[in-house]
Q: What sequence folds into this?
């Protein structure tokens, strides 16, 4: 959707989006190299989504993923490279609340 929007930095308008019926976030914000603040996504209802593959891949300015900790990803099946090439992101520990297997967490950043 916004893939490769390299200068996209303000996603505040997305905070009010109703994504509750969405099942696929594949590549949604990938390569948005100027994006650093993902707080507007904190209240998204992603409980029906199955695919988060490459969602934030290449978002080199993201360093804080705390806003995503309350997402219900229990129906998620694809998390591959969700945060790959996010060079400022040093810790995905906040997402441990998602209760996913360790190998899935490894796939998120590789």
A:
């Amino acid at each position: 959707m916004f893939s490769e929007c390299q200068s996209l930095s303000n996603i505040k308008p997305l905070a009010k989006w109703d994504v509750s019926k969405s099942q696929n976030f594949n590549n949604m914000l990938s390569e948005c190299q100027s994006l650093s603040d993902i707080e507007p996504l904190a209240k998204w209802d992603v409980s029906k989504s199955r695919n988060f593959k490459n969602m934030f891949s290449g978002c080199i300015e993201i360093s804080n993923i705390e806003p995503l900790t309350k997402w219900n990803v229990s129906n998620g099946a694809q998390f591959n490279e969700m945060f790959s090439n996010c060079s400022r992101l040093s810790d995905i520990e906040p997402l441990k609340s998602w209760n996913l297997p360790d190998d899935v967490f490894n796939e998120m950043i590789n």
In short: DSSP finds one helix and no strands in the chain. Residues 102-109 form the longest helix (8 residues). Residues 92 and 105 are 8 Å apart (CA to CA).
